[in-house]
Amino acid sequence: MCGSLDQSNLKNKKLPWAVLVAGPTCSGKSYLSLKIAQALNGTIINADAMQCYKDLRIITTRPSIEDEASAPHRLYGVLPWDQTGNAGWWREQALSELEQVSSQKRLPILCGGTGMYFHSLIHGIALIPEPSADARAEARRSIETKGSPFVYELLSQVDPQTAQTLNPTDSQRVARAWEVWLSTGKGLKFWQQEAHLPGAAYNFIVIRLAPERALLKEAVAERFTAMVDEGAVEEVANFLKADPPVQAPLRRALGVPEFVAYLSGEITLVEAIDNAVRNTQRYIKRQETWFSNRVLAPSVQVCIFNSRIDKNLKFSESFIEKSISFINSFIDV
């Protein structure tokens, strides 16, 4: 389902164009983005939170070295594991990349499944003060020594408005909320209601993949089996040698908690894979809900495909051609 071009509906014809390829995990975003980039002189800008990190290339399913060499890729593997890349950080990096790519007369193609990254770029983001180093260290120390639920209870007492939006066991987000309160004396929800940085000055064309969940379930199972064959378990074992704390973002990457449990002898490898598939399906459901209820661009600039895109799947070439044609209908105006 694709919108149709009506020049009267374009808010600002003078703004540069950028493409968003969005959708749930395992839907084929990377492959579709690569094909669009090759056809339309594009540069792919990563919008997946975990693929920003240098570590765990296999388990975060970053594009292969060969794919990265066949078209320009930006913001992949740029963060060390001990740095937190939140939406504010990504937005700043993405804006810089958009400017550079546009100045090179190339088409920016933002590819990923982290909805809040897209939202921060398109609609802007709250201007939250950077927590002090002492506050950040104290928040991390509290999470490590006392656990996320304990810190969550502390947060609930001083900042219930933020706490009610969080999962007590989500150590990364609890630590983030706690460090902001420790540093500023005000909660995240307070700052989110204050001044906002504006959205990017671009016209966005959205290609959203929304395959049936049954198709994704099968693809996810195949992906985790392939990951193990490619060395994902060994990759996680090497990552653990650095002794990353529980709130390190990559500790939450899909498949990492399950393989950590396997490596510690708590479960078998088969159970680890089954658990990873099950938890990934839950994450996919949350992604689908998020994208279904958000406006990323005017409807005439949105194209939705209810299919996976993969070089081995029938009809994928047809969807790729339709995507390229749809994008061309705007950038050729």
Automatic annotation (TrEMBL):
Binding site for ATP: G23, P24, T25, C26, S27, G28, K29, S30
Keyword Nucleotide-binding: yes
NCBIfam families: miaA (TIGR00174)
Gene label: miaA
Protein name per its UniProtKB record: tRNA dimethylallyltransferase
Pfam family, one: IPPT
Gene3D superfamilies from the UniProt entry: 1.10.20.140, P-loop containing nucleotide triphosphate hydrolases
Self-association and partners: Monomer.
Keywords: ATP-binding, Magnesium, Nucleotide-binding, Transferase, tRNA processing
Binding site for substrate: T25, C26, S27, G28, K29, S30
EC numbers, comma separated: 2.5.1.75
Region feature Interaction with substrate tRNA, mapped onto this chain: 172-176
Role: Catalyzes the transfer of a dimethylallyl group onto the adenine at position 37 in tRNAs that read codons beginning with uridine, leading to the formation of N6-(dimethylallyl)adenosine (i(6)A).
UniProt cross-references to InterPro entries, sorted A to Z: Dimethylallyltransferase (IPR039657), IPT (IPR018022), P-loop_NTPase (IPR027417)
